[in-house]
Amino acid sequence: MHFKLLLSLLITIGFQSLVAQENKLWNTKKCAVVLTYDDALNEHLDNVIPALDEHGLRATFYLIGESETLNKRLDEWRSAAQNGHELGNHSLTHPCINKPGRKKPLSPEKDLANFTLDRVVNEIKITNTLLHSIDGKTERTFAYPCGHMKIDSVLFFPYLKGEFIAARGVKRNMMTAGQIDLDDINCFGMKGHTGQEMKQLVDQAIESNTLLVFLFHGVGGGSPLNVSVEAHQELIAYLREKQDEIWIAPLVEVAKYIKTRTPQNKPKTIEKNK
């Protein structure tokens, strides 16, 4: 009788320990949250980075090599990298598919339909060289411009494997560490979202022990894909408040953590509320 009771107790303790471990897979935290900002906007330097630095949070900024803001404010981007923010690669010219009905048609030199595989790969490598000259880093992540991953039905990221730790796509999902495809990390794009809506996503990530990646463009202006400074401030204040439960880091660090701890199998997605 005593043996059965002891065995039952040991099983219960073991199960509780396993659950506790599974609930803290993200660098000892319940989940991971990554803040990413695309296109090297003035608003990122003026509104975002000062707010993040004030709260002690670090993020990933995906820079376009030919960006006027990058070229004119180079020292500020270098300073951001020195403060722990990741300067990610968002290509040299940000080429996209020139879809019919597009409000602002793309010029031929930015229409992805006019690009060869070699040109895409080479321009992305050139941008990596530029970024290295700014921050001195040899490890970073990539973000697909407009979410496009192929040239003539051919995936181009496999030709860049030696250049990057991982790549961020645009699919809206949260995933556990073992479900993530490092060639296409999912994210939630923000456009007009309130602080409360963004905090609800954070709560979902905590509850499901998943990775949540935010994709921002404009913050207080700079892009049609915009959120207000107030909503953004509400989010980052909430993240700081929840740091005991959330691992908040640039994507390159989270991707390296995933890479060393999980096999890269075909991912299965967890759909979340939009």
From TrEMBL:
It comes from the Bacteria. InterPro entries: Glyco_hydro/deAcase_b/a-brl, NODB_dom, Polysacch_Deacetylase. GO terms for biological process: carbohydrate metabolic process. Its EC number is 3.1.1.-. GO terms for molecular function: hydrolase activity, acting on carbon-nitrogen (but not peptide) bonds. Gene3D superfamilies: Glycoside hydrolase/deacetylase. Coiled coil: none annotated. Residues 31-249 form the NodB homology domain. Residues 1-20 form the signal peptide. Pfam families: Polysacc_deac_1. Keywords: Hydrolase, Signal. The keyword Acyltransferase does not apply. It is an enzyme of class 3 (hydrolase). PANTHER family: CHITOOLIGOSACCHARIDE DEACETYLASE, PTHR34216. This is Carbohydrate esterase, family CE4.
